[in-house]
Design goal:
Blueprint: E1 18-22, H1 26-37, E2 41-46, H2 51-58, E3 63-65, H3 66-72, E4 75-78, H4 82-93, E5 102-105, H5 109-112, E6 123-129, H6 133-141, E7 148-154, H7 160-171, E8 178-181, H8 183-198, H9 200-215, H10 220-249, H11 252-265, H12 268-282, H13 285-295, H14 299-309, H15 312-323
Parallel strand pairs: 1-2, 1-4, 2-3, 4-5, 5-6, 7-8
Antiparallel strand pairs: 6-7
Helix pairs in contact: 1-6, 1-7, 8-9, 8-12, 9-10
The structure holds NADPH dihydro-nicotinamide-adenine-dinucleotide phosphate (NDP), ligand LWWEY6Y5 and magnesium ion (2 copies).
One magnesium ion is lined by residues 130, 190, 194.
Binding site for Mg(2+) 1: 190, 194
EC number: 1.1.1.86
Binding site for substrate: 251
Length: 329
């Protein structure tokens, strides 16, 4: 598989184009600031009265309403929450799209599951950082970047690939490596990754480890250092040098114990569950469930958020992070 780096990307097809970034949250802030500092013509499309409006102005952006920005731009890059994109697109963007414009996303959810159906004559592209927004910005400021994906759903002008790759370069993604894929693949793998491994899987693993130690009588602070804080330090080794070098850096005791015990923790049943989770994503069951949850006003998500905030690991962790200056009050 070809991985694209800075040398393969340029800004030629973006020079005379205006990019309207819709949304100034996790990805919107990071991507718009990176693209602007890379020399691209970026404006913001935001809702008046929201917190983002003032924040974007303070960061030096030209800020317009979503409708104004959509009208002015050649490229409309939609970076608001997935569950509201369809509604905002239908009410505030669709009518301003012109032939030759590009509608761009950082996740394929709404295009792949057809909550958004763009008109003929409009390119449909994706530039998806494989990273939380904060790290998109931080790594860019450090002179590096995070990896990403680009996808071309519709190329009506013959320029869609160059536009998407140029944006990826502007965001800093080609510094770390960019892969071209499809909206379907990005959507399914991204949803799977965040549910089974990156967000869902990891928090459950940490929680189970923490609770096992606390229930056995060990101090919660010690359990936190062992099962949560040190996880980042171990993952950093894997991130930098792979499994083999991580095993090399930890003790032989850890290596032997880890290799002989890990399949008792993440079992064959866990892998079967992962396969079932992937199926629910592929056949649209997850998307339907999430749509119903949103229509009902997110009751289940809100109650899970409350319960998550009440976990002992959260209160102990917040206290420890504050004491050592990791988390500001
Ligand atoms: N979070 C991440 O790190 C990643 C996200 N993505 C994708 O990027 C996209 C954006 O996600 P993310 O950055 O998390 O989004 P956020 O939740 O951070 O988006 C917040 C922004 O959306 C605006 N917004 C919220 N509701 C509305 C509304 N009804 N009308 C207009 N504006 C609204 C907010 O404005 P206000 O301040 O006015 O409320 C704010 O500017 C999604 O497609 C997501 O899947 C992809 C990779 C990683
Ligand atoms: C892992 C979660 C993510 O997919 C991301 C940061 O890449 C998201 O949707 O936020
Ligand atoms: Mg992701
Ligand atoms: Mg995601």
């Amino acid at each position: 598989m070809q991985v694209l780096y800075d040398a393969e990307a340029n800004y030629d097809k973006l020079k005379n184009k205006t990019i309207a970034v819709i949304g100034y949250g996790s990805q919107g802030r990071a991507q718009s600031l990176n693209m602007k500092e890379s020399g691209l013509n970026v404006i913001m499309g935001l809702r008046e009265g929201g917190a983002s409006w003032e924040a974007a102005k303070e960061d030096g952006h030209e800020v317009y309403t979503i409708e104004e920005a959509a009208k002015m731009a050649d490229i409309i890059h939609v970076l608001i929450p997935d569950e509201i994109q369809g509604d905002v697109y239908n009410k505030q963007i669709k009518q301003y799209l012109e032939e030759g414009n590009t509608l761009s996303f950082s996740h394929g959810y709404n295009i792949h599951f057809k909550y958004i159906v763009p008109p003929k004559g409009v390119n449909v592209t994706m530039v998806a950082p494989k990273s939380p927004g904060k790290m998109v910005r931080k790594t860019y400021e450090e002179g590096f970047g995070v990896p990403g994906l680009i996808c071309i759903e519709k190329d009506e002008t013959g320029e869609a690939y160059d536009v998407a790759l140029g944006m990826a370069k502007g965001i800093g993604l080609t510094r770390a490596g960019v892969i071209q894929t499809t909206f379907r693949e990005e959507t399914e793998t991204d949803l799977f990754g965040e549910q089974a491994v990156l967000c869902g899987g990891v928090t459950e693993l940490i929680k189970a480890g923490f609770e096992t130690l606390v229930e056995a009588g060990y101090a919660p602070e010690m359990a936190y250092f062992e099962t949560c804080h040190e996880l980042k330090l171990i993952v950093d080794l894997i991130y930098q040098k792979g499994f083999k070098n991580m095993w090399n850096d930890v003790s032989n005791t850890a290596e032997y114990g880890g290799l002989t015990r890990r399949e008792r923790v993440v079992t064959k049943e866990s892998k079967e569950a992962m396969k079932e989770i992937l199926k629910e994503i592929q056949d649209g069951r997850f998307t339907k469930e999430f749509a119903l949850e949103n229509q009902a006003g997110k009751p289940h998500l809100n109650s899970m958020r409350r319960l998550e905030g009440e976990l002992l690991i959260e209160t102990v962790g917040a206290d420890l992070r504050k004491k050592c200056g990791l988390e500001k009050e």
